[in-house]
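User: For a benchmark we're assembling, each entry needs the component sequences followed by a predicted structure for the full assembly. Here are entry 17's components. Please fill in the structure.
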Amino acid sequence: MSAPTRTHSPADSSPAADAARPAPRSEVPTTSRRTRRDWSAPIAYLIALVVCGITIAPVVYVIIGGFRTTAQINRDPSGWPDPWVFDKYLAVFTNPGFWTQFANSSIVALATTTGVVVLGVMAAFVIARYEFFGRGFLFSLFTAGLLFPLTVAVLPLFTMLRGFGLLGNLMAVIAPQVAFALPTTIIILVPFLRAIPAELEDAAVIDGASRFTFFLRVLLPLSWPGLVTVGVLAFVASWNAYLLPLLLLGNPATATLPVGVQYFSTAYSQDTAGVLAFTSIAMLPALLFFTLAQRRIVGGLTGAVKG
Amino acid sequence: MTASTTSAGPARVAGPAPARPASSSRKGRPRGLLLIWGFVLPALLVYATFVLIPVALAAVYSFFNWNGLSALERFIGFDNYVRALTDPVFIGAMGNNAAIVVLSLLVQGPLAIGVALLLNRPLRGRTLIRTLIFVPYVLSEVVAGLAFRLILPPGGPFDSFLTALGWAGEKPLWLADPDVAFWTLFAVLTWKYLGFAIILMLAGLQGVPEELGEAAAIDGASWWQTQRHITLPLLGPTIRIWAFLSMIGALQLFDMVFILTGGGPVNATETMATYMVEYGNGRSQIGYGSAVAVILFIVSLAVALLYQRFVLRRDLTGAITRGG
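Assistant: Structure for entry 17:
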């Protein structure tokens, strides 16, 4: 079963894949460090090159393919654009449906992130720092949410939100997404907020600050890194979400980007180049956002694991 | 690793942490109580309304023959469950989920550990390598699935790539042949989630002190001996958490399958979640779909609890309660 590594290097031989990974290659000459095991460094670079090539090749293929015409693609599926065509990308940007979906995705992701962070930090604050009746139960209740997959709840959510008359409304996606992101958020934030020294709170209280002022003026600024981490995780999950928007937003032409891309690819399946262009534009926000917030995402994913 | 079908963020760590009172906790006084509940209630309300109640409703619906529109009155006991567990298609879907769980652990785990061990050194361009490796994980499953649907058709770019490599003959129908489609799906899932596993292992490796490896090298241990007897055991907690996330994700797999194959051809790639959506949403059999959802939940819960009980126990006390 070494198949996965081998099977997915379709564009490996294409110039595109080479262009996408110049850095590791250019660094190979520098690897003859004065370590005892000189041979292992080139192997590491080779492995890095192969793995990066496989991960990036499909992405590069889609992006490059958007610069070709469907006729070019039909003639030679894995060729280089000749000539480069920008129409397909322009068509996406002048497609009002795309902008509707883009706006919807942005609104849903921003509202979900805001909701999760605000509700999550408030609950995590008191669970982490105050002793009260039901505290242990509350924390267990929220952590139990990790075991309730969205898939289990999606059919009842559908009938429930239809009862509220919310189908097709962005709120129908935002509210459940906030709810399902709360367990992760609270689990990450509670130890984070607990680690902030009690002396700070005592000092603030002595200076006449209320608990609320302490929360707003001292605790929130101090816990900023944790908030950014849970915020980024919630944003990415929401941006990529498919099942909820698919079932709850109805008309795919005015849903969020993942649903819209899928709809476009079915509706215009003959226009291969157009689908490639639309797909790569849909990739772009996630890639950009990831590059900007990379340290936070990786930190957030591994932080909860490493403790 | 297939965690996070939709909102199930991979940062989810197993199970409830012991709610140990911190030394800094304050006794709640009447005014404090107002603040406490004022802070907790909004989150609790949203959580109860959109998580707890729907999950409970799914359990209720599962005992009815209900299309989601008429009155909820045709109580049929466990008939929906019997129907699901005697439907060969659903049994096949469960088998597919189980196969993906096992294959992920056996293929993606060792691959990720191996690559991470090789990359765990001061490499030039390390940040770039990490970014590129991580790219598939950040893309939505929909976009990734669509990309592969465009790459894998008969005579498509992947086939012509193979021809260029020297495979002149007929290529398999990657997505249309029932005997091949499952393996294609698994390969695409590996492409999507291997990077996450590698990054996770690399992060875990940073917690392994370098001095240990140096000491072993001075004592004459080979590179492989050092990895085998020092690094791997110390990486244990990370591997166990990754395996947990991977299993839960594989059980709840939906988006990628739905986009790539829709469960076909001839149900060859059906999973519990695609089966549920097909019946619950596609055919408006909300009662039956809910029974499938409950079975999916029970299977996930059983796996999670057993795994925590027997594998994760010693890791968790530290992993969650220590500061993030």
